[in-house]
Amino acid sequence: MVLGFILYEAVDLVWNFGGMTFRGAKGAYNWYYEVPTPDDIEIHKLEDIEKRMKHLEDLLSKDKQCIKDK
User: Fold this and answer.
1) Which residues contact 30 (CB under 8 A, 6 or more apart)?
2) What does the alpha-carbon distance between residue 55 and residue 40 come to, in Å, rounded to a whole number?
3) Is the pLDDT of residue 70 over 90?
4) CA 63 to chain CA mean position, Å
5) Cβ neighbours for 39, distance < 8 A, ≥ 6 positions apart
């Protein structure tokens, strides 16, 4: 009974320590090589979409002015 509990706790400790080590190494790797996070990727996509929308709005406003001038 006690042996089972000790083995269970040992496996649990190894599992959690291994997970922390993996997540820490992954975080350090991503930080060092500047790997973008999913949030960074989404922010860049939204900024690109905003630039494209602004460009299209400018084209539409120029087109409306050309029509009014005629």
Assistant:
1) 37
2) 23
3) no
4) 38
5) none
What is the rounded distance in angstroms from the CA atom of residue 14 to the CA atom of residue 43?
37
8 Å CB contact between 60 and 53: no
Q: Which helix (H) or strand (E) holds 23?
A: helix 2-32
Task: Round to whole Å and give the CA distance between 67 and 70.
Answer: 5
Three-class SS state of 13: helix
pTM for the whole structure? 0.61
Q: Taking a C-beta distance cutoff of 8 angstroms, is the pair 41, 34 a contact?
A: no
In this prediction, residue 57 carries a pLDDT of 94
Q: What is the pLDDT of residues 21-57, one digit of tens each?
A: 999 999 999 999 999 999 999 999 999 999 999 999 9
